[in-house]
Amino acid sequence: MRVLVLGGSSYVAQFVLRGCLDANAIVASGSTDATTQLLTIGCTLRTPAAALSGGDDTRLPSQFHLVQHGQPPPPLDGCHDRVWVFPATDVTDQASISACLSCFQPDVVINCVGEMEIAECFRDNLTHIVTAALSSPAACEKQPELARAINHPTALLAALADASKLRGAAIRLLHFSTDLVYGGAVMPAGGYSEADASMATAPPTTVYGQTKLMFDEALMAQHDCCPLVLRIANVVGPPAPLFRNQLPKFIEWLHKQLFESNDQPVRLWSDEIRSFVFVQDIVGLVLLLLQRDNECWTANPIINVGGAESLSRVQVAEQYIAVCNGRSIRREHAPLAAVQRASVDIGYSPPLDATLNTSRQIGLIGCATPTQTWMEEIASAISRIT
């Protein structure tokens, strides 16, 4: 099976690629069911090929191999211990993505571009989103047309339709969406279910959520590919495994503010609730879906992906401090300062509580990783690099 990951340098994509390589190693060792398919793995990067041979900041991991544009493709199959990299690929440019699809001829495309290089940072102790693409709510509010072009990539749909017709079978598309498509309606008891987002009856309250939901709905009306949408909550996990010098995710930033910075209070939202999801739970779901047939995909075309419990950032910090103190001699940490997001004008209005109903996710892979478990894993990973 050929699997192409779009946006290969994004945080979740790196773990998906690492998970695919690890899964191949297990299959090759004979340790899995004989029906499990080996994966031929590819990914796209927006970075030009010339820039990927520079210093440590841009050098490709050892298992990544460039496919040069304009040259005959290498023999892709049979190389299950590597990732074929298609540089300078832009999903908003139909010719660019079509050339990649023509060369790699994937069975499954995993679209991580909407998640591309989002890093939750905090400037002057207030939430500030930094992103290389138009995938942050704040940036989308300022540039709605550009947000629509990136988050609703019609060029990708057209390229997939053409490629599917050429191969005589629909390419499967696994698309990463967001929990911020919800919020246009009152949250039901038990959290938002997959049916609670609708541009017609409950449009999201942010441009980011609207553009993501528009593409979700376009995919559900698409007949030229076989789509499955994962609506993912705030992702937590250890430092990115493949590419260096990326902006930190929330827990990594939090660790630094608590234990490595000065004694200034760490200001965090106390009233914004999210279903924080461990990145390895996403990887596990993706690997399972890759091995399932089209009937499974069409039966569950949209799946909420969240964690074991819904928490505010203050609650995450309190639990993380307890986990770190339980790992060693009690450590001094900066004090927490709870701030109500409802009292601060951040320029846009995402839902305060975006708790997800994850019954479909649980039905496929079981319960999510417990909060304490993923916190311990992240703390251990951070301690190894600090």
Automatic annotation (TrEMBL):
Signal peptide feature range: none
UniProt xrefs under InterPro entries: Epimerase_deHydtase, NAD(P)-bd_dom_sf
Domain of life: Eukaryota
Domain NAD-dependent epimerase/dehydratase: 128-306
Name of the featured protein: NAD-dependent epimerase/dehydratase domain-containing protein
Organism: Lagenidium giganteum
